[in-house]
Amino acid sequence: MRFDGVSVAIDGVHIVHGVELEARDGEIVGVLGPNGSGKSTLLRSLYRALRPHAGAVLVDGDDVWRDLSARAAARRTAAVTQHSAEEFRLSVREVVLMGRTPHQSLLAPATATDHRIADTALEQVGMDHAGHRLFGTLSGGERQRVVLARALCQQSRVLVLDEPTNHLDIAHQLEFLDLVAALPTTTVVVLHDLNLAAAYCDRLYLLDGGRVVAAGPVADVLTPETVREVFGVSATLGRHPVSGAPHLFFSRSDTEGTPECAT
Ligand SMILES: Nc1ncnc2c1ncn2[C@@H]1O[C@H](COP(=O)(O)OP(=O)(O)OP(=O)(O)O)[C@@H](O)[C@H]1O
To answer: Is Disulfide bond tagged as a keyword (predicted)?
Structure first.
């Protein structure tokens, strides 16, 4: 998929400015940036929630706004975003089956195939025991896995994840991203944890003020210089001792420049 000079405005306010971003087949691409830098707004234009006023969002060469219907676009791109209140009153199975909507005829009930696909998706995320539960009674981590199952049911080529590890404990963060990393889909993910992004993403795009200010392999984007410039914090770059991936070490702002604390 590709953002080709995409600009997005909300209520006349320009939020995303001329973004160029590419995710190649099977890649996990991270979109990073401070609060309010336009990450969610950009991704909303990919899953057809917000129409760009300039540029094109291309999936498999088709402009998702000009060349595809909403249903056809939903067969290409699935999104995991924050949960809406209405989902809380549905059963887990009903929530997961919502992912089949772009494949069903209008108002037709779910078919045996739809149920089989939902079962497989629930199994994939380890929630097959919970199909009968009310979505609203699940823990935050369980809900996140169910919403991923719904996205898997959409059988799309592209998966959009907007802060999918929010509210998850460290075990569930790793479990969720391991699951995503094992999928064959092209994934575009917003993450606030820069080290999780370094561990799981093939390439990164860093946004600031709605513009891409750095892009490329993890080591090119997550430098102490860019982190200081964009987030305004000091970081030391090292390597993860096991994986060897770039790893940023942050200091408390009141210990900046001081030697290691004595114990
Ligand atoms: N519906 C809206 N009306 C007005 N302004 C909006 C609306 N949605 C977003 N914005 C503004 O657009 C800017 C970018 O918001 P966006 O949610 O895309 O940022 P983000 O990078 O995803 O932020 P965060 O990391 O805090 O989730 C913010 O200043 C936000 O207040």
So the answer is: no
Q: pTM to 2 decimals? A: 0.91
Return the residue whose CA atom lies nearest to atom 13 of ligand 1.
36
Residue 7 lies in a domain: yes
On whether both 243 and 115 belong to a single domain, the answer is: no
Residues 50 and 164 in one domain: yes
The reported pLDDT for the residue numbered 260 is 46
pLDDT over 50 at 156, yes or no? yes
How many domains are contained in the chain?
2
CA of 210 to the centre of ligand 1 (A): 10
The tokens for 180 are: 């995503």
Range of the domain at 101: 84-156
Pocket test for ligand 1, best of 40, 44, 160, 212 (most atoms within 8 A of CB): 40
Q: Which atom of ligand 1 is nearest to the CA of 41?
A: 18
